[in-house]
């Protein structure tokens, strides 16, 4: 081998690590620039989506009211076994904490939280504050029991200790019509006059399922028609499908109120055609809610179906017909199975949006047609009860995630097995 060949081979071996290092450096630089490009979007999602969702979930189990208002009492109750009344030190701590809470304006939140455990607790706190023992009273225990005999009952102290935990399942259980019994600590069903949330969730999912089914029945033929039309006509009609997105949701809902009312266009038309003799109640009930929500959510079903149908070759159906299959059988057994991905995506998207709707049921529905979102808004805006506002929202989010997980397994069965 010549000397020049040896030198060239040595230079090549020396250059190889250098090229690899430069390549790795270039890749790191590319990844860093990519991260910088997506950083604004990541921060936006983190601040505007992840952080509010995390706050929502934490509020459903957060329980600061009793700890904030009665810190010394909570500390004294930490070692209390619950078999007999607390010691004198605990009663003294309670009197001191109540006086401080009154000065700091914390009584309202305290009484409200304790009334969740025992409704009479609000009255008990108010009565005690009006007759709060003086600091020179020898026995705070006897003084409090003299003010109200409830302070001598174990269930009130057990409820106080139960409500003093920093985290509580109260709101989540209440959203499922259950509660923790203060006497035993077991999970039991809530009182019948307070058990409304399971029915509300059932109503929400029922309305969402009906709306999704109607959107599928109406959206499938429309999507198929758009997919089979020439591109020019298809694009023109697609504008009509997208037109609701360019109109305010409140305007669309208010338009349905006008159309569906007793003296509205629909009732007048039906009476003119002789189909009915008197106006039919179509608004401020379940019928109006379903009609209005179906109209609003129909594009969310059409678009996924259309995107899938547009890519299905038409020669498959023609081949099945040429082999002797009936046109309907060829369509049902050859074409429809290829639309399952779009059908599942559209149904999932429509259902998730439907169960979270607030404006349309609030404007078009009656008192018996309100969904979970209405009560989330009620507890947020009217009673300012963040725990009860967050608990139904958290359960609704959990249901949405479960639906998404089911959708993922149905659409990617192989990945689910691996």
From TrEMBL:
This is ABC transporter permease subunit. The keyword Glycoprotein does not apply. It is a multi-pass membrane protein. Residues 1-20 are annotated as: Disordered. Its main location: membrane. GO terms for biological process: transmembrane transport. The chain crosses the membrane at residues 34-57, 200-224, 236-259, 289-309, 315-336, 343-364, 384-407.
